[in-house]
Amino acid sequence: MTEVMASGSPPRPAQSVRPAQSPPSMIERMTLILDAFSGPTARLTLEDVARRTGLPRSTAHRILDQLVRQRWLAHHSFGYGLGQRALGLGGRDGGHGRVREAAAPLLHELQVTTGLVAHLAVLDGAEVYYLDKLGGRLAASVPSRVGGRAPAHCTALGKAMLAWLEPERVDALLGPEITRLTSRTIGEIRTLHQELHRIRQRRGLAFERGESFPGIACVAAAIRGPEGPVAGISLVGDIRAPLENVAPLVVTAARETSRILFPGLGATTRGGGRAGARARRSAAERGAEAATWSPETMNRLLAVDGRGDWM
């Protein structure tokens, strides 16, 4: 330290330790990249990863893509973060417990008010992963379970969340070919993008009738955060169920859950002081708000597909 001060040379800023040479094996390179993330909330750009690991930018980019596809990492608009597999190894649930806690009373109200089966799920790659299921007499007839999965492209829950991702991200998650499960399943990625556009036009409402299982219908809306969709809420019933009548309740429940999880979002639009109060409103008050969605409003929302049908 004395020599540095005497010479007048300014101290060099601290830098990340870079390996002398690139590790020879893929496993070592992957481990090096995962170790670059200091914790579950760490966010790194491609340049950050290349600098911290000492890997060539092209090599880092290729391995990052592979880690994202395998869910070790997640790619957001702001950079990369630890994915569900990495968080699971650390004994964490990826924030699922917090989402379930926030949505639980709203999910319960939905089920009791409508008598339909209520779901809470997150997007996990090309699938939805069910966090919660509340049913009535219809529960046994709905082939879903907590901890179960379903293809995202043919469920209302999945489409509700996919609608708020960038198209390139949807392509990366689903790939160029998507599988038909029934005669009503969307089987082309271009058609799916058209449907996701219609969902955005419908204030985030997603519908499906018989796309995943014959005889089952569903309406869903995404729980959204500052970085995109974090989960989705749905109501499921018989294919003949008039889901347009309960659609406003689903949207309201998803928005209330978003405000509980991300109070700042409500503050920017309607004042953060009322976010908590709104989250505790009674079912009757929510029903009164739902009544403001007139039949004419619902017709306009559901007619944006140009066919009057529900996808």
> Which fold does the CATH topology of the largest domain refer to?
Beta-Lactamase
Percent of sequence in beta strands: 15-25%
Determine and state the CATH class of the largest domain.
Alpha Beta
| Tally of strands | 8
Rounded mean pLDDT is 77
Low-confidence stretches: 1-20, 267-295, 300-311
Helix and strand element order = HHHHEEHHEEEHHHEEEHHHHH
Question: What Rg, in angstroms, do the CA atoms define?
Answer: 23 Å
Biggest pleated sheet? 6 strands, antiparallel
The CATH superfamily of the largest domain appears as: GAF domain
- Give the domain tally: 2
Q: What percentage of residues falls in helices of 4 or more residues?
A: 40-55%
Count of individual helical segments? 14
CATH architecture of the largest domain: 2-Layer Sandwich
Instruction: Quote the distance from N terminus to C terminus.
Output: 70 Å
Shape: globular
Output the strand order for the largest sheet.
Answer: 5-4-3-8-7-6
